[in-house]
Amino acid sequence: MSPATPAPETGGAALELLVHGVGGATPQSMLDDPRTVRVTGDGTAAVYRRTEDLDAEDHPERYAARPVPEAYCWSNLTSGDGTRALWLLLLPFMVVNLAHWMRPPAQGRPGLVRLYGVLVRLVALTLTVLLTAAACEVALDLTAWQCAGTSACSDAYSWLGFLAADRGGWWSAPGRRLALAALVPTALVVLLWYLSNRTWSAYEAQRPPTGHDAPAAPGAAPAGIGPTPDAPEPAAVPEPTPAVPEPTPVELRPALGRPGFWYGRRLVARLRGAHTAAGFLTVAAALTTATSRHDTGARAAVGLALQAALVALGATVLWVVCRRGRSERRVDLRVERALVSWLPFTALGVLALTALHAGWTRPGWVSTGTLPGDAAFGALTLAQGGLVVALGAVALLLQRPRKDPRTALRGLGGPAVAMLACALAGVMSGGVAQRVADWLDGAGAGQGPRIGPPVLLSWQASVIPVLLLLLLAPAALLAVRTVLDARRLRPAVEADYDAEDEPDPVRTGRIAAGRARAGLTDSAPVLVGVVSGATLLLGAASVVGAWASGNVPGRAFDGAHPAIAATASTAQALGSWMIGFGFLLFVTWGRRAYKDASARRTIGILWDVGTFWPRAAHPFAPPCYAERAVPDLTWRMITWTRRTGGRLVISGHSQGSVLAAAAVWQLPPATRGRVALLTYGSPLERLYGRWFPAYFGPEALRGLHRTIDCWSNLHRATDPIGGPVRVPAEADRPAVDADVLLDPVAYGRTREHPLPEPILGHSDYQADPEFARRRSALLDRLLPAVPSQRDPNSPDRQGSSGRSSG
C-alpha cells in the first residue's frame, strides 16, 4: 500500500488524543458517536476511534479542517469490577502514600529528602501494625479471651461453645483459644499480601518506553518502539524546524520526566515483604505478650527465644523500610526476590512457632480481665505523633530556602495528610473494636464482667465530638464568606457580560454564587490544617487520659470532677456511637458499590485522585493507575508521530490533563516538536501545584512550558476543580493560560442562544467555541515532517479485525 501523503492545505496529518477526567467516560461519549472501534489496548484501558475514522491516515483530504479524534479511556483502571469497592478498606494506606509526594521542593538537599521519605515510610509501617493490632484486639482479646472466658457471653453465642472456658474442652485452654483466634489477623495479613502482589503484577509491571534517553536519529523510532524486523524500513523524516534540543541529562530532568518514575516495581516488592512480615510479627507479639507472664521453666526459655527472634526480625523490617527509597533515574528491572520472599515467610514461621508455644498447657491459667493491649495502642499513638512532628520539622527545613505563598499549609501539607491517615486508621480500628465489643456484650449484659476494648479507644472516642465541634467554626466561616463573595461578585458578573438591557438579578445571583462556591476549593488547606492539628492535640490528650486512669476498663474517667466525668462519659458514649455508625456506613457504602455500578463510579472518583501517585510509602495502598496510563499515552504518541510524521495534540480534561502532562514529560525530544498540549478544567496548579510543589510547583510547570513548544490551558471562574496554571510568557512562547471563559457562554437569550444557557462549571469545555479555536491555533504552530512508510500491519491499518466495537 502506498504511503499516505499530507494534504498541502493542512500541513500533514493531525491527531487529537482525548484523555478524560475523573469519574470515567465511555468512548462513545468522548467521540460523540455510538460507533467506535478499539484501535489498541485491552478491556482495562484502550484507545478508540470512530468507525469512519479508522483509515484516516490513508485519506488526509477528509480531515483538512479538523484533526482525527481518538479517545483514551482509562476508567476501568480505578472503577472496574465490584472488587474495587474493597479498596475502601485501604483508604488510610492511600492517604499516607499521598504524604510522601507532598514534600516541598529541595534542590541540592538530598539528605533531607531521604529523611523525609524514611519518616513517611515509618508512619506507613505503623498503620500496618495498627490495623493488624486492631484485628488481634477483636479476635484474641474481645472474642477468644473475654467472651469465651465468660459463661454469660459464650452461652449466648453457640459458635463459641467449643472455646468456652467453663466447658472444659480441648480448645478451652486460654493459650489454645488465643492460638486459634490468631488465624483471623493472620488471614487478614495474607489477604493484604495477596492483593498487593496481584496488583503489583498488573500495575507496576507496565514498563515505560525505553531507549529514548539517547539522541534519536531523524525519523528513527526509539529502542523498543520501532517496527518489527519483518516490517519495511521507514523513510527518513527530517528534523522539524527549529531544531530539537539535545536530551537533558537524567539527573537534571524534572522528576516526572525521569525514565524510572513510573516504574516502582522494585520498591513496592521490597516494602510488600517488609509490611507483610510486620503484620505477622504483630500477631506473634500479641500471642507472646499474653503467654509470657505465665511461662515457667522450659516454657520460659522457649518464650525468650521466640521474643529474641521477634526483636531480630522487627529490626530487620525497620532496616528494610528505612534503607532504600525510590530509584527514578533509570528503569530498575531488579526485584530482590530473596528479601521479598524469605522475610515474610520467616516471620510466618516464627508466628507458627509462637502459636504452638501458646498452645502449651499452663496449669492454673484462667482468662480474667483483658489482654495487655492498652500499652500497644498507646505506644503506636505516641510513635505516630512523634513521627508526624519530626516530619513537620523536616518539611519546614525543606521549605525554608524557597517559600511559595501558594503552597498548601506553607509546606506542611505532607505532615498534615500523614496525621489524617493516622486518624482514619484510628477511627477504623477503634470503630471495629467498639462495635464488636458492644455486640458481644449485648447478649450477656449485666450477667458478668463487661466486655470492652482498651481504655485508650474509649478516650479516643470521647474526643471525636470535640473534633467535630472544632470543625463547625471554620465551616461556618467559609459558609458566611461564600455568601458575602457571591454578593461581591454580582457587579463583576454583570460587567463581564456587558449586558445592555436591565440585568436579571436572579441570573446574576446564580452565576455569582457558582463562582463563589468554586472558590471554596482554595480553602481546603485551612480545613485540613485544623483537622490535623486538632487530631494531634486530642490524640495526645487521649493517651494522657488513658494513662491517668490506669488503663483499667470501666475507669476511664475516674478521679475527675463529677461534672467533668459526666461530660466526658457522655462524649465517650456519643463518640462510640458515631464511630460505630461511621463504620457501618463505610461497610454499607462498600457493599452498595460492589453491586451498583453508579456507586462504584463514585468511589472510582476518589481513587482517580488518590491513586495517581505510585506506591512509594505503603505497598498495601490501592495501585497507581498512572503506571499503566502514562506509558500507554507515551507509547501512543511516540509510535504515531514516528510512523506518520504528523502533528498531535493531546487534549486532557481534569485529571486527564495531569496524565497528559506526565506523558509529555516522558516524551523524547524528537517527539516533543510534533506534540501540543491542550488542558482544560485542569487541577495542575490549583490542586497539584499547591499540594505537590516538588513535582507540580511553579518551577516544574515553567519547565514543562519550556519542554513543549505548544501548550494552552482553558479554565472557568465557575469551575471548582480546574483553574489557571499561572505560567507566564517566555521568549518565543506565549502565556499558557487563555482568558477566563465565560460560563454560561451567554447571559440571556440571544439569536445564537435562544434558550437560557446552563452554568457548566467543570464539564463540557468542548462546547465552548474557544476550545476549537485554541486547538486549531496549537496545531497551526506545529510543523509536520514528511510522513514515513507505515507498517501495513500497524493498528491504524488493520481495520476492526479482532477488536471490540462500542
Average pLDDT: 82
Q: How far apart are the first and last residues' alpha carbons, in Å?
A: 28 Å
Number of DSSP E strands: 7
Percent in helix: 40-55%
Largest beta sheet: strand ordering:
2-3-4-1-5-6-7
The count of helical stretches stands at: 25
Give start-end ranges of low-pLDDT stretches.
1-11, 212-246, 786-790, 794-806
Biggest β-sheet: count, sense, barrel? 7 strands, mixed
Q: What overall geometry do the principal axes of the alpha carbons give? A: globular
Over the alpha carbons, how many angstroms does the gyration radius reach?
30 Å
Which structural class do you get from the secondary structure elements? Answer: mainly alpha
Query: Hey, roughly how much beta strand do the residues contain?
Result: 5-15%
Give a topology summary.
Blueprint: E1 14-19, H1 27-31, E2 36-41, E3 46-50, E4 68-73, H2 76-79, H3 91-101, H4 110-147, H5 151-156, H6 174-181, H7 183-202, H8 265-292, H9 298-323, H10 337-358, H11 374-399, H12 413-443, H13 455-462, H14 464-497, H15 505-518, H16 524-548, H17 562-595, H18 597-610, H19 626-644, E5 647-653, H20 655-665, H21 669-672, E6 675-680, H22 684-691, H23 693-696, H24 698-707, E7 710-714, H25 769-781
Parallel strand pairs: 1-4, 1-5, 5-6, 6-7
Antiparallel strand pairs: 2-3, 3-4
Helix pairs in contact: 3-4, 3-12, 4-6, 4-7, 4-8, 4-9, 4-11, 4-12, 6-10, 7-8, 8-9, 8-10, 9-10, 11-12, 11-16, 12-13, 12-16, 12-17, 13-16, 13-17, 14-15, 14-16, 17-18, 19-20
